[in-house]
């Protein structure tokens, strides 16, 4: 708290004006006003999270929560050592607000493809679960009846604060087949605009020019593969869950995703549903697969990368990988963390200057109540609290202020002394909102690339698909077969497993996709897009 003494009485007055906190909690919470006018309020080590909350300061006091309820909330992400410590503090306050406690099992990023479907298959206690179009996948799980359908009456009754605060477009983007099965997050950014992080010392050691394209990045990878083979560091220690196609296929080709592997080339003058195509069937995808096979042959990653369960970002920060693939926020964290170890890292935008970026849809990280939840009303109420109570939301996002992170006077956050024990938004992506402090300490080169993303952001009028979700009604078996083939084959092409047989294996894969009806899905998607645009 000492670093904020200069804010003096102004801060105390801000805290006193906040309506949603109990007397003891507000005395020990920390608040600052960001330049955009947002009041950011967080919990410090001194905040009494168990303090009773007066009814007039509790937006949920009118609900009958006399019966205690415990909920299981599954998420995907990174779990820090202080996870339970933070959840215990959350539970102290949530118990005061709605007499509810939660436990938050975290499915690691490396295991979500197998473990996530098992949670929803039955037999596992799970009341709330994070959703994402490609985790589950969401559409498959929704079709299987894994999620509770949410009516507007239900939401208005049990999630009143969310209905007030939620960004309007987010509801449209969260719809599936005209129904709602998920509660979208309330903040979005360029999460799908990925660059690469490299080690400056190695780039300079091998006289590699500034990395600004896949080709210059490949020069770096091959130089590190040849020169560092005896050091135990790989150029890019990848794994099956790394978003390779976003970085090395979609971005460089200026392809904007319509649905799953269905994309549109934004180099076109205007959007036409008849121009969409399946990326996997394209010549560009073949070239991508052959490049990945070449990278594998050159030793860019170990030969057993297909079985690797450690995320590439962790391997980079642990010194086992000479590069990372990530969005700008994660890149900044990499650079700042390594700088403390006197290691210079660089974030590089490898997309061509003509490529577009796009703010990620709000449904890319959302929340669902499972169809087998024993108390869906309390689950909805708990989601409402987690999304709208500043103390709880910021605890879940970043942990304890002054310990896991530092709240700056301008409403940003920086790394705290115990940041590794509870990484900022390690799993709470689905709860991001305007209540959260924005990343602080952005290094100039990362800020410059973020500005490039902003300048390249595609106009929604040029790509008017926000809110479109493909409806596979009548084609469920086709979709299921396509998804099964993708899970069986895609990662092997990403990691160049087939080597010199890549062309033949890709022919086989494409043949199986066509046989399964992928072109039929594409035709249906075109028709649905035309109807969507005509609304």
Task: Quickly list its features.
535 residues, alpha+beta, D-Maltodextrin-Binding Protein, domain 2, 2 domains, six-stranded mixed sheet, three-stranded antiparallel sheet, 40% helix, globular
Tell me briefly what this model is.
With 535 residues, the protein is of the alpha+beta class.
Determine the oligomeric state from the structure: single chain
Number of helices: 20
CATH architecture of the largest domain: 3-Layer(aba) Sandwich
Helix fraction, binned, reads: 40-55%
**Number of strand segments:** 19
CATH class (first level) name of the largest domain: Alpha Beta
Q: Structurally, how many domains make up the residues?
A: 2
**Fourth-tier CATH superfamily name of the largest domain:** Periplasmic binding protein-like II
What composes the largest sheet?
Answer: 6 strands, mixed
N-to-C terminal Cα separation, in Å? 54 Å
**Strand residue percentage:** 5-15%
Overall pLDDT:
90
Task: Give the overall shape.
Answer: globular
Which structural class fits the helix and strand makeup?
A: alpha+beta
Which spans of ≥5 residues are poorly predicted at pLDDT below 50?
1-24
Whole-angstrom Rg: 24 Å
Using the coordinates shown, work out and report the CATH topology of the largest domain: D-Maltodextrin-Binding Protein, domain 2
